[in-house]
Design goal:
By secondary structure, the protein is mainly beta. The chain has two domains: 2-71, 3-Layer(aba) Sandwich (Rossmann fold); 80-187, UDP N-Acetylglucosamine Acyltransferase, domain 1 (3 Solenoid). Helices cover 11% and strands 28% of the residues. The chain has helices at residues 8-19, 63-72; strands spanning 2-4, 26-28, 36-37, 40-41, 56-58, 80-81, 86-87, 92-93, 98-99, 104-105, 110-111, 116-117, 122-123, 128-129, 134-135, 140-141, 146-147, 152-153, 158-159, 164-165, 170-171, 176-177, 185-188, 193-197. The strands form five sheets. It has an eight-stranded mixed sheet, with helices on one face. The protein has a six-stranded parallel sheet with strand order 7-10-13-16-19-22, with no helix packed on it. The longest helix has 12 residues, at 8-19. The mean pLDDT is 97. The record marks 126 as: Increases basicity of active site His. Belongs to the transferase hexapeptide repeat family. Residues 2-70 form the PglD N-terminal domain.
Length: 201
């Protein structure tokens, strides 16, 4: 597996790959000062001709940056699922997505491309996550929740059943979302309240 990004997020992906006995065949990063990551060499900026048949993961935690990179890079993408994660045989996980330690994805859930299902996050039955979503550690999506493109659900947040959250939202850590949230909103607290709506530039 090739990785684009030599960040802290990439370290967790490397750990997942090694636990699954999948070799890391190359790491790219645009910062020339980064020479190695967890003892593995960093090859510099992305090279399309380097092992072009090997699947790639964008190992960047920021949803907007991950989307920008995928718009520039033409490559076959893989997916990474830690062996301790529980993913239903009836769930769908698209390419480019990573599922970390002890995460759970239940039956009929659909997870889009280049998403992050972080440590011990729970995605219950019939949830729909669009591309570039990040579900942070210990966050809980109850059944039939929909999450729009690029939205970040903070650590320990809880989304009650049937809620719809728009695209490019931020839900604060520990928030409890009891009502639908529109696009581009930032919501925090218990129950969650919207404190800002700001479209992407």
């Amino acid at each position: 597996m090739l990785l684009y990004g030599a960040s802290g997020h990439a370290k967790v992906i490397i750990d997942c790959l090694q636990a699954s006995k999948v070799p890391v065949t190359g790491i790219f990063d645009d910062n020339p000062d980064i020479q190695q990551l967890l003892g593995l060499p960093v090859l510099g900026s992305y090279q399309a001709k380097y092992l072009p048949e090997e699947p790639l993961i964008i190992a960047v935690g920021n949803n907007q940056i991950r989307r920008k990179i995928t718009a520039l890079v033409q490559h076959t993408y893989g997916k990474v699922i830690h062996p301790s994660a529980i993913v239903s045989a009836y769930a769908k996980v698209d390419d480019g997505t990573v599922v970390f330690h002890h995460a759970v994805i239940q039956a009929s859930a659909s997870v889009g491309q280049h998403c992050i299902i972080n440590t011990s996050a729970s995605v219950d039955h019939d949830c729909v996550l669009e591309n570039f979503v990040h579900i942070s550690p210990n966050a809980t999506l109850s059944g039939n929740v929909s999450i729009g493109e690029g939205t970040h659900i903070g650590a320990g947040a809880t989304i009650i059943p049937g809620i719809s959250i728009g695209k490019w939202c931020v839900i604060g850590a520990g928030a409890v979302v009891t009502k639908d949230i529109p696009d581009y909103a930032k919501a925090v607290g218990v129950p969650a309240r919207i404190i800002k709506i700001k479209p992407l530039l």
